[in-house]
Every structure is written in structure tokens, then in C-alpha cells.
Task: structure prediction
Amino acid sequence: MTDLVFAPPSDRKSAESGTQLTPRFDANGLVTAIVTDFASGKLLMVAHMNADALAKTIETGQSHFWSRSRQKLWLKGETSGTIQHVHEMRTDCDQDAIWLKVSVSGAGATCHTGMPSCFYRRIEATDGTFELIHDDIAPLFDSAEVYDNKS
Amino acid sequence: MTDLVFAPPSDRKSAESGTQLTPRFDANGLVTAIVTDFASGKLLMVAHMNADALAKTIETGQSHFWSRSRQKLWLKGETSGTIQHVHEMRTDCDQDAIWLKVSVSGAGATCHTGMPSCFYRRIEATDGTFELIHDDIAPLFDSAEVYDNKS
Result:
């Protein structure tokens, strides 16, 4: 656990214009976390943080999230070695989202598939139909090898 | 309403590696939408989409969201004139998030405060305390004037 305690959400005006971090966690105790690459600015992933994950991220400078599927705190890169080092954190107007600008260590992949970003497919819509077009790049690691041999 | 109907979520492997758009809406029927500026790549806002908002965005090329606070479909910029024209859409590995690359018309502001981005404050953490540092830029419109005289 952490010693950091966040102030409760304030009224809308104060939350928008103030200088106090008062995260507006949702009914499940989560805020949305958006992660971009510090150098290129590219969107890498979207995840969620509870108060503990947010505090741990601030304290350690490494991205921590709350895994909704596993229902546990998650140090990003703990298994794959692709730790995210946080250069800057921002919050949005109503403080229900956190933006992390990071550099990724290890193989440099963010997605568990080994791709640099989780957003490796473009939605192409033509005449009422649409399909996903994959980026023409190779994964930076072998997902089966990284995850299946551990935990 | 729209004629577009999305296929239900498929198994994890297909969702990750396939070419079919099968959005994984959460218990509230929503996916996360991340909006960046098409030209600069900067993060502008985070919002949510239900199936109707996603379909409308694909059909019209203008960002539509589901307003959780107002519980209604929301054409972004309808009041302020800051319509978002979508240049590219992407989805992530498990298809529970949508990334929109847009250009913003009108005053060019994305945030309802008149700021170019909703993320106009940096979290600065020093020695166990932290505060929000505002970007030193002026709003692109007067929020009170834009919203208080309408609807």
C-alpha cells in the first residue's frame, strides 16, 4: 500500500480551474489512463487506474494500472520487461482521466501482442462495410514466449 | 438511429488478430474514445461511445460520443461549433477502445473550457506533495458566452 491519499472530488468549477489533484474515480474506483510515447507523442495504450495504482505511479515513476480482468494491481512490464518510465503526467478538465508520457524499456513494445502500440489496426469504412487493416510491422517480441513461460 | 450493426465480441484471439470490428462494449454499453489532433498528434480529449455513437461517427465522419452525465448522444461541437472531422479511426488489441485522429473546426478548442486540449494541467509531484500546473495559454473561446447563452 501507499501513504498517498487523494483529496475527494471537489465541485465542478474547482475541479476544472484549481491546482489540487482531486481524481474523480468512477463507481468502480477507476480513472482512465492514456499512455503516449514521450519522444514520438504516439498513442501506446489505454488502461485504468485505481487510487493505489495512481499513487504507486506518482511515487515510483513507473506506470501502474488496475487490471480489470485480473482484479489486481499491475506494474506494467513486470513480466515482459517493458517497464514504462513516466516523464510527465497530466489530468483533464474534470479529473477523471490521467495522461502519462512515457519511455518504454526492454523490447520497447507496449502491447502484450508484442506490437509497439495496442492500436495496431486502422478501421477502414467503405460503403457501409468496414474492416480492420493491420499495420505492416512485426511484433517486437514473441508474445507466446514472453507470457507462456512465466507466471 | 443508424443501420450499422456491430458484430458481437469474438474470442480473445480473434478479437486481437482478426480483421473484423467487434467492439467490446462494457457493462454500460460503452467503449473508451481517445481523440488526438490529426496534424500535431496531441491528445485532445477522452470520452465514451455507445454503439450508436460509434456508428454515427463512422457514417458521418464527425465525432459522436455518449454523454454519461447527460445520458444522451452527443455530436461533439454541436453547441460550440468545434466539430471534429475524423481523418482516421483505430481500435486496440481487445477492441474496447477507439482512437480518433481529428481536425477541429470553429475556434479549434476541444475542451468546453475553451482550451485546445482537456489536458491543460500537468501533475507536478515533489516530496510527497503534488499540485496541478496550468499551461500558460489562453482559452480559444469564452466558455460562459458559448454555453450559457445556448440550450
In short: The helical segments of chain B are 12-17, 51-60, 143-148. The mean pLDDT of chain B is 93.
